[in-house]
Design brief:
Elements (H helix, E strand, L loop, with lengths): L2 H4 L3 H10 L9 H9 L4 H24 L5 H9 L2 H14 L6 H27 L8 H26 L4 H12 L5 H8 L4 H29 L2
Helix pairs in contact: 2-4, 3-4, 4-5, 8-9, 8-11, 9-11, 10-11
């Protein structure tokens, strides 16, 4: 409803739609949940992260890919993303309560930590070329407005008025809506050649604003979720 009013360039519209709702619910959301709500929050933050992963690899990939491919090719590119299938497989393993051998678990854990490092290296490579004078302030601030103000406000309204979640789960959900943009956005923008430097700048600005807003976010959660 808003992107065509805000942006005239189709690529900027795609970035806005792909990036603005995707938060760092994994690398940041899960540790932050442990810090604020204890280790008991991990099942909730983990399932929210999986939902976020599915959103990224379906909707975000589509908006990034549509700049280079037709609708059919964009959908096909979504189906080729391994993250979707592994997320669904993880849900199946969890639902069936399938135990994992400790040695296999260790290997998977090492792979997970390695992927985080690689993501941050890619992010740093693109961030290195971002200069203050060339930062797309207009698009970055528009994206941050959605991520840090509009989305949390809508989330609070929905949680308080349209759900019967207990205060603990509601607080975790609101917190996850407030985390900054995901670094994975840069990887996808680079993969589909959709202004990855602009996306890296948007992630940087979003993260800086999150540090500034964090205290107020915590107070908001305490005030609304009792």
């Amino acid at each position: 409803m808003l992107n065509k009013r805000i942006f005239t360039n189709r690529t900027d519209q795609s970035i806005y739609l792909a990036v603005a709702l995707v938060g760092n619910t994994g690398n940041l959301g899960i540790p932050l949940g442990i810090a604020l709500f204890g280790i008991e929050s991990v099942p909730y933050t983990s399932i929210i992260n999986i939902a976020n992963i599915l959103f990224i690899y379906i909707f975000s990939v589509y908006f990034f890919a549509r700049e280079q491919f037709s609708l059919k090719e964009a959908i096909y590119s979504i189906l080729k993303i391994p993250g979707i299938w592994f997320a669904l497989f993880a849900l199946f393993v969890n639902y069936e309560e399938i135990s994992i051998n400790k040695h296999i678990y260790t290997a998977l854990e090492m792979g997970a930590y390695t992927s985080m490092v690689i993501q941050l290296i890619i992010f740093g490579m693109y961030l290195y070329s971002v200069k203050i004078k060339t930062i797309p302030w207009y698009s970055s601030l528009q994206i941050s407005f959605v991520k840090h103000i509009l989305l949390p406000v809508v989330g609070i309204i929905i949680v308080l008025n349209f759900t019967n979640l207990n205060s603990y789960v509601a607080s975790i959900l609101i917190m996850e809506l407030m985390v900054p943009l995901a670094v994975n956005n840069v990887n996808l923008a680079a993969l589909y050649n959709c202004k990855p430097f602009d996306v890296a700048a948007s992630v940087l600005i979003s993260t800086a604003l999150f540090v500034f807003f964090l205290y107020f976010y915590i107070e908001i959660i305490r005030y609304f979720i009792k």
